[in-house]
Each structure stands twice: as structure tokens, then as C-alpha cells.
RNA sequence: GGGCGAGUGGCGCAGUGGUUAGCGCAGAUGCUUUACACGCAUUUGGUCGGGGGUUCGAAUCCCUCCUUGCCCACCA
């Protein structure tokens, strides 16, 4: 046992033990150790962005994972917590582009694709380690020997393999669709990457003339007048009596102005989705720039095709062809007309409105708020755009839905299961291609123009090599593709698809692609890690990526592993500041965890975060919580110092004969704490576990038990003292272990400092609390041997009542908290030997006399307790009126309680219907209150 | 428009039918008590969002309304 300093200094402790753990291989998972008796426990980390910095969300998330991992190790499991990072396509590319612009005034095009990618890799090597080191500072017990990156060569192979496989299953296809286009990043986005935000703008009403009926005007409402040049029709509801008769006629599109009138005639069509309540009931249809409009055109085309003889505008189906009037960067192109051409889209809106006004067509312009889709990353409004992209029809949807609905996989809290289910039953195909450079390149090659003759193409398609894939789509103009993780044998004849895959198209493979999966059945069967640790046990993540990541991992798990990827998903809350605002860089309300760690210690940060993180609720984070965590660690430190000051070696056996009532009580409370904490952790109720530990350690152990124990240590009985130390060692060694998953550093330091490590069986190459066994509740035998029965609690309550009331008297009569005050107790029964001294100490009193025949002077302050009447004689200082007032207040309170209970008992149906135990309890309660009332009244009588 | 949460003392939260509704922070008062002032003791704050119902008994179950947060949805 080494002496420990007065205040806990985390800085000198944390790095030391982290290095120790890593050097001893404590975090390293070994699949060969997994047996029935030593089951596997695994978590894969939600990979942070490779260039990211640790923020409070990571702290919450990874502390939880660390608690789960460390607890599992203490339960004797073989634990794999697999770490790694994500290449984060757009985010990383944007960062590097920004740096390039800032430092060299260049764009990525100035460098070219190859050179630019080199720069990204350099950037990654420079910044990629930061967040990993930050996780180490937090104490995360990840198996760093298995760190993975989504762009590792093996991982990239998995991504391509999956693409090829899904392609061959017919689930991946290329097509020209309406996609969410980000004009800033100039790439397509998935639906999940679009965030709807209310935007203040204007609703414009303008009128158009019906060509067949000059003088008849229709009014159209729109928020996007700049897209008028792209209108190919106007739609009305066929049931709308105002307009139905006009279907089949035409209107004159007002823009572009310079086009001749006959080129601007567009049909009036009917579509049931037009809401005649909304706006004017007339909808402009812009199929190239609005998803709903595109769909209307598809419906109309189909309808017209099937009912050709009844369609008045059969020959005008060409009007259903979308007109693209915008460039990829969000500026207007030639088709938008001379006035708008070259203008940025919002500038074009203004100009379009001006032109309408000049023609006398603008009727109204009123402020209007509507939802606009924004690119989540670039934070600019997305543009619905027709473009050719790769799409995925989600695989294994049915089984993925079932596994959560039927409970093979559990969500915590389970309400997220509904959200998951709802999304899954409404999913659209996933746009997986991105027009970026940083990412996994689509493993598809197209023949260069003229590289092959028709016959050659035919031969290749019919050849054994199934990398040659025929293409049936006519519009593409390509009849052959090479789809494989290997480039074609004659690369000179081919061009690889320039697009890369959505980052999530790699992340969704994370649970198995990190464990040596190759997609080859024979070699996967030999992959020890995969066999031992897949499916993983728990996944800990935020509900904000339930669609992006969780749902997709489940589908990939079933599709490629034939099994679910994890058995439990714990959804954390979102970290907010103490005012409930989301943490963000712009608000500047996001504290740097590393600063907090250096100020307060990693354990303090973990404690503060977890204490305020109830199951499934958002976490309102306040730096005060971390301060509290630091105070807590210091308290723990000093509780151990107190034990050390009593001296002696670590005590083993407790002698049941020497246990005091306080010893028995603290052992019972320990037992309760073990059960509560174990249950709380098993059900992912981390805040409950922390609160229970807090209560047990601080209130019960320190504030009560340790204070009471001083009576023994100040006394002379050495055997009794030694036994007291044994109890303390027993409690502290259990306590430290229960705290370890939450507070790894300080518990390890104390485990050694206190000498408890000496009891540890040697394994894993070093003695560490990490592999100490999680405490078990006391057995019935132990409870019997130590006399832990019901009387223990009853006596403790009575003592607590006496001490609290005695302290109260001291405060009220200004005796002060120091070793002052002379009490006299008129005991109600026999007190155990030494009990009076314990009580004196807890009262911080100069003395506590026992006198069964005590006759107090009039007006002596009194506390009436189950253990007897406690008096605080005050020489000449008695204020009879004050004491009377105090006691009278008590009487009022007690009478109110008696009234309540009597009312209940007086209800005839109460006695009939209530369980006997409850009835008995109420009767007892009434009796107790009545005794108290009589005593208090007697005390008042005695005053006069 | 649909779905899911939340409303308990100044603040943050526990408490899902049965004692006098708990805890932490903040506040007040007193204490250099010999583990810890990053501490100790005492103490002030609550008709549990409103209304109705079920029950012997409701913060807790049901209905309804109000407030608030989040997610989903092509209303131009």
C-alpha cells in the first residue's frame, strides 16, 4: 500500500494507466479465447469522420461504449471494441478544397483528379489520427490493433465486391431520374441528405391566356417564377368545375419573352393530384425541375399512351419532354431565355418577376413561407434535377423489417422501432453515386466510342466472363459495360465511370467488412474474427443516423452475412447546452472535451456526461456537471485516503461476531447497490446506475457509515478496529469495481494504491482492475452469517431519525456544528454497547449522556424519537416561547397526517378492498403518529 | 397533414396505482469536526400543465384540451 496525496490529480494518473493497458494488451481481443464459458462481446464503433474533432456527442457515445465494454470484460467475456474512421466523402473533400483555395488559390480542377486525391490522402494522414488520440484521452478501451478505415485497400475491395454483387442481382441500376442536386458541391444526394427548412419567400400569382379562347385568362400561383421557361404544361384537377372544360386546350407560356408565340403554347392537362383548394387550382408543370411535376408528366404520358384515341393532345406528347433550363452550378442556361441566361437562380427569380410585371401578367406578390430542401452538408437549397445516376433497390428489406418488429433485434428505447419500421416501409431507391472524387470509385467501365464492333460486343456479352454486362437501356446509347472489382483486361478500350459511391455505401458494411469479410464463402468461414464476433452484441449511436446507417447496416448484414449485424441498438440522446439548444460551431456553445479533460480529468468528464444522460432523452450539458464529476473523484480519492490512515494490510475475512449495527447496515446497502447498478446497466439505464452509485457512495457510505466508523477508530478495541477495516476494505473493493467502467482511471489508480490488486488472479499479463470480476450480490449464506436481517434497517432508521433531529436542535438553538452541545438521551429501550458513542459522534456533540430517569428543566429543547427522548439542556439560554412555537408547529403537522390516515381508514370500502398488508401498514402508521402527537403535546405541557 | 417524445419546487431530472412526491444544482444559515471547503450539517421552495373520468386510493391508468421539442410528408 503506497501513500496517496491529499487531492486527486488526474493528469499524473491517466496517461500512465492508459499506456499500461495498451502495453499489457488489455484491449486486444483474441477470437481463440472465445468459448462457451468465455462468450464473445463485441461493439463496432460508429466511425467518426477521419478528419473530425472530438465533440460532446462523441464523448457521450463513446463513454457508453466504453462502459459496456469494460463491464463485459469484468463479466468475464472476450471483448472486441473495434475502432476506426470514415472517409466521409463530401465533408473531407470540401475541407481539402477549402484549404487548397486558401493556401494555393487553386481549385481541384487545377490539380486534376489524381493529384487532388494525393492531396486528400496527405490531409488524411496529417489529421486522421487526431480524433483517435482524443478517444484515447477519454479512456476508450478499443482494440487499436484492429483500427480500420473505410478506404483501406481491403475495405475498398469489400465495397466494390458488394457493388458488383448487387449489380448482378439486378438491384443496382443506372438511370436518368429526378435527384436531389446540390449546386454547391455539384453532386447528387440521397433523400436522407436533404433537410427541409422553412424559408421566407414570396408566392407569385401571374396570369396566362388560353390560346383557344382569347380573352380567357388563367391565374397560376408559384414560388419559383424563374422556372417558367421550363414549363411544359399547366395542370388542373379534372374534377374542378372551373377548369375541367379547358383540358386539352393551351395556354401561352409567358417566358422566355423572345420566343415566338407558337413555340410557347403548352397544353392544359388534368391530374388528380392537383389540389383545387390550394393557390388558384392551376399548377404550372416543370418536369425538369420539380419532382412532383416530373411525376405528373410520367402519369400523363402513361395515361395518354393507353387511351390514345380519347386524348385531345396526343400529337403533343412531346410537350411532356422535360426542358432543362439550369446548369449544374445553379445558374440558368440558354433555354431559360436571353433575360435569365447566365444568372444565378435566385437572381433569375427577380428578373423573371420583373419580366412578368412588364408584360402586365403579374397579379400578386405576397410574402410566403414554405419548406425548402437544403443540402445538409453545404447548407444551400437543393435543386431537383434530372440526371443520370446509380440507384440501389434496397436488399433484404423484409427480413430487416421483421427482425426489429419481432424482437430478435432490440432497440433501446424501443420507440425507435416504430420510426425504423415506418421508414423501411416507405423507402425509395437509394441514389448511391456522387459526383465527387474522394471515395470509392464505381467499379464500372464503359467501352470507348468505336472500341468494339457490334459483333464484338455481342461476343463479349455471350462470353463466359460475367464481368461483361449487356445494357438494355436505349437512351444510354451503350450496349456493354464491364462490371468488376478488377479493371478490364484491355484498359485502353475502356473508360471507368467517373463517379464515386455515397459514403454510407461503405459505412453500411462496417460490422463485417472490418472483421475480415471478403465475400468469399470459403475464406469467410475461416475468418476467426468474423466467426467469433459477428453478429456484434451492442451498437451505440444517435437516432439521427437511424436511416443513414443503422437501417442500412441491418439490410447489408442480412444480405451479405445472412444474419443481423447486432443484437441491441442503444440510441443516445442529443447533447444540448444547458438552455436546450443544439451544440453547434456557429453558436459557440460546444465545449472542447479536450479542454475539459485537461481541466477536470477524463473521469470527471465521463461522470458528468453520464450522470445527466437518462435513457433516450436529450442531454442538457453544463460544465457544472464536469465540475461535479471532479468533486466526486476527489471524494472517492479521499474516502480511500481515510481507509489508508487507519493503517494495516488489506483485511480479508470479516468476523461476524464483531460486526456493529452500522457494519451490517452498510453491507446491506452495498448488496442493494450491487443489485440496482447491475440491473440498471443490463437495461442500459446508465444515469440510474450513476445515481445509485452516487447515493450509495456519498450519502450512505461517506456521510453516514464513515462518520459512524470513527467511533471505533477513536476507541481502543484493536480487534474491533481491525474488523472495521475489513468491512471498509470489503465495501471499497466492491465499490471501486462498480465504478471502474465509468471511472476507469481513478479506480485503477486506487485499486493499486489500496493494494486490492494483490488479490487478483494473474491473467492478461498484468494485474488490473479491468479484469477484476464484477461484484455479485451477497449470498443468502453471507447474509445469514453476518446477521443481515430486517432489524438492521429498522434500527438504522431509528438512529437516523434521532441523529437528524438532534442536529436539527443544535442548529435551531445555535449550538453550531462543531464538537459542541451536551445531549441527554432518555432511552426507550436498551442500546447496544458503543451505540451511544456512535450517536454522539454523528451528532458532533461534546457529550451524550444516557439517563433513563432524566427530568428536564422546563423548556429544554426535546426531540421525540423511537430510540427515546433526546434533550439538549441549555444553561440559562432557554427561550420557552421559541420551544413552544417549535413544538406547536410539529403538532399541527402531525395532526394533519393523522387526519389523512384516519380519513382513509374511515372509508368503509377501504378496509374491504385493500390488501391486508396495506391495511396493516396504515393502522401502524396511525398508531405511530398518535404516539408522536401525545409525546409532543406532553412536551408542550411540560413547558408551562 | 402524419408519427413520436416532454410538461413534477428557480434550473436539470427520478418516481407508471398504495407511507409524509425524491435527488442533484442553485438559494439561506452555521461550521478551519483531526479523509475531503472539490468538504460537513441544518434549512427555504412543489395544489406533479388545465379539465373530466376509472378506483377504497391517481404524479402514475383512460378521455380531452393547452404548451413545447423532434422526426416523416411532392401542397405549387
Per DSSP E runs of 2 or more residues, the count of β-strands stands at: 30
Mean pLDDT across all residues, rounded?
A: 87
Helix content: 40-55%
Which sheet architecture does the biggest sheet show?
4 strands, antiparallel
**Distance from first to last alpha carbon:** 61 Å
Structural class determined from secondary elements: alpha/beta
Low-confidence stretches: 305-315
Spatial ordering of strands, largest sheet: 6-5-14-16
Radius of gyration: 38 Å
Shape: elongated
Query: DSSP strand (E) fraction?
Result: 15-25%
- Helical segment count: 30
Protein described:
The protein is elongated. The strands form 10 sheets. Strands 6-5-14-16 form a 4-stranded antiparallel β-sheet. Strands 10-11-9-12 form a 4-stranded mixed β-sheet, covered by helices on one side. The protein has a 4-stranded antiparallel β-sheet with strand order 19-20-18-21, with helices on one face. It is α/β, with parallel strands linked by helices. The model is unreliable at 305-315 (pLDDT under 50). The chain binds one RNA strand of 76 nucleotides through strand 8, strand 12, helix 8, helix 11 and helix 20.
What topology does this entry show?
Elements: H1 11-23, E1 40-44, H2 56-74, E2 78-82, E3 84-85, H3 89-104, H4 108-111, H5 113-127, H6 130-138, E4 148-149, H7 153-168, E5 172-182, E6 187-189, E7 194-209, E8 217-222, E9 233-236, E10 250-252, E11 265-270, E12 282-285, H8 291-306, H9 345-358, E13 362-375, E14 383-392, H10 397-405, E15 410-412, H11 416-424, E16 430-431, E17 433-434, E18 444-447, H12 454-462, E19 468-470, E20 480-483, E21 494-496, E22 500-501, H13 504-507, H14 510-513, H15 521-526, H16 528-533, E23 536-541, H17 546-561, E24 566-571, E25 575-577, H18 593-600, H19 602-611, E26 619-621, H20 623-645, H21 661-682, H22 686-714, H23 718-739, H24 744-753, H25 780-785, H26 790-812, E27 822-827, H27 835-842, E28 847-850, E29 862-865, E30 868-871, H28 880-906, H29 908-913, H30 916-943
Helix pairs in contact: 1-24, 2-19, 10-11, 18-19, 19-20, 20-22, 21-22, 21-23, 21-26, 22-23, 22-27, 23-24, 28-30
This protein binds one RNA strand of 76 nucleotides through strand 8, strand 12, helix 8, helix 11 and helix 20.
